[in-house]
């Protein structure tokens, strides 16, 4: 016997009016119990509403863009089998964790239930039983910039096909990877339009030595943070898969520093060299558009960006995150300083939203407040260049007649040599330095 059951939005905590961002089934589709039907997304998290039982979708009462709240009926399912004694209860389920931003900062795909070897598979949920909580997606407030943004269903789909979501540019809102992006990607591999990224990159290296450090003295084990674990994997990928070249230069910021300090004092605001570097980077990106670009998925085209969103590496207690300041060409140094202060504080408090770490064109990693004379920043793919900044220092500069004490700022530009050749790397860095030296010519 079959029975029609209302599928309701389960307990989603204190949230209401949550946008539906994906409808994963159509009327007439046969679905399995626990199969995802809808994806909902708030500012804080993403979750899916699964089918409570196996059956056929008879009615869908929402479309993408609708906003839903707890207990709202979103679909009607005709269950395959229903025990007669059970009432046709609505299939919503209490889900205390739903739509809560998880405490952890690293993304985790929703777990896929796997029957353990040798054990009986779990019994399917009964009709109307309160066993179908939505599946929250783990990534939330502090999702690092380069973590693929996709719903659990899309992650599952990609996993089934063995697709690395990092290789896919999302076409959904805010760069979200949707089901069709995965399909198109697989198609492009199958037709030979794209070469699959080599998992091992052809390295034939001996394994790391296994050392018992305790043999040599006292030790302590400290787990690395989730941000470090996740961002480490992407830093590693970027380091080994992008041919980096780092161009070093020095900018004479003696005059700029006088102006900066006067302005900071007059206006009573924190104004660091970083905001001048953001403005100089925008000027250089405008002059050298190949730096404000990404390779497309076929690696045959450059996607040239007409906007100027700059990512800033921020050191937090849990690891490195890269919030993005948007439209830096349209903001003055004081607006940039205010936004930088606010974003970096929220980054340190672990309160950044994923969307605030996406869409960057070019990144700046400033270690100038800490020290150092030079370093090699790792490109934040799919960007093609990143500016590293070390500490400025007073150095003797020859003016043709004598040495003059000048405040010199070390710049370290890493660029993707597949996209940018060495001469342009040097030109870009020199131009950026000139913008700081002749800061009066920049729109501050
Ligand atoms: N040379 C000399 N002094 C510098 C400087 C430079 N290049 N850059 C900054 N300073 C000074 C600032 O003026 C400030 O001094 P005052 O307090 O006297 O004004 C001081 O150093 C501290 O600056 P800050 O770090 O608070 O501010 P910022 O705008 O320079 O940087 C932020 C902000 C968020 C980028 C920075 O705090 C940060 O997190 N940096 C680390 C980035 C990082 O980890 N990169 C590595 C990534 S790769 O692994």
N-to-C series of helices and strands: EEEEEEEEEHHHEHHEEEEEEHEEEEH
In quaternary terms, these chains amount to: single chain
Strand content: 15-25%
CA-based gyration radius: 26 Å
Considering the chains and any ligands shown, give keywords for the structure.
444 residues; alpha+beta; 7-stranded mixed β-sheet; 20 strands; elongated; binds oxidized coenzyme A
Describe the SSE topology.
Layout: E1 3-8, E2 18-23, E3 30-31, E4 36-41, E5 46-50, E6 55-60, E7 67-68, E8 73-79, E9 135-136, H1 152-161, H2 179-190, H3 226-241, E10 244-252, H4 254-267, H5 273-287, E11 293-295, E12 302-304, E13 310-312, E14 314-316, E15 319-321, E16 324-325, H6 333-348, E17 362-366, E18 385-389, E19 393-398, E20 403-416, H7 422-437
Parallel strand pairs: 13-17, 17-18
Antiparallel strand pairs: 1-8, 2-4, 2-7, 3-6, 4-5, 5-9, 6-8, 10-20, 11-12, 13-16, 14-15, 18-20, 19-20
Helix pairs in contact: 5-6, 5-7
This protein binds oxidized coenzyme A (CAO).
General description of the model:
The structure is a single chain. The strands form five sheets. Strands 10, 13, 16, 17, 18, 19 and 20 form a seven-stranded mixed β-sheet that branches. The longest helix has 16 residues, at 226-241. By secondary structure, the chain is α+β, with helices and mostly antiparallel strands. Strand 14 and strand 15 (319-321) form a beta hairpin. The chain has seven helices and 20 strands. 22% of the residues lie in helices and 22% in strands. Helix 5 packs across helix 6 (333-348). It has helices at residues 152-161, 179-190, 226-241, 254-267, 273-287, 333-348, 422-437, and strands at 3-8, 18-23, 30-31, 36-41, 46-50, 55-60, 67-68, 73-79, 135-136, 244-252, 293-295, 302-304, 310-312, 314-316, 319-321, 324-325, 362-366, 385-389, 393-398, 403-416. It starts with a strand and ends in a 7-residue tail after the last helix. It is elongated. Bound molecules: oxidized coenzyme A. The site of oxidized coenzyme A has 20 residues, from helix 5, strand 14, helix 6 and strand 17.
